[in-house]
Amino acid sequence: xxxxxxNELTAQLWRQRELLEMLLFKYEEERLLxxxxxxxxxxxxxxxxxxxxxxxxxxxxxxxxxxxxxxxxWGLPPGALLRDLAEGxxxxxxxxxxxxxxxxxxxxxxxxxxxxxxxxxxxRANGEIDHTEQSARLIDTVL
Length: 143
Known about the structure:
Blueprint: H1 3-35, H2 42-73, H3 82-88, H4 92-125, H5 133-142
Helix pairs in contact: 1-2, 1-4, 2-3, 2-5, 3-4
Protein name: Flagellar protein FlgN
Keywords: Cell projection, Cilium, Flagellum
């Protein structure tokens, strides 16, 4: 096990969690703008969602590679996921750290899905194009 590799992954997971929180915030912001009738700002909110989604995509890819690499150094099969690291960690400390990251990410992703579902329903009800599909596909790949 390389402690340095695990520490670097932990830092990546924190950054990814921050991006997930930012995406949730942007969805909430968009919902509030729409609810308040401030449609003038919706295009800006949509662009901000796209920016965060792009950053999250890049982060997710590098995090997946780091997870797989660390998993292999811990003797896990290639393509390990965060859940696999938490379950296959060589000691209780790393198991707890990765379990905490996993739990927190599942919670925020659940919230994102709920807000996105509300937003998507509103778009459909208004006959508008649902721009949230890209982020929905990305969210499904994070864990």
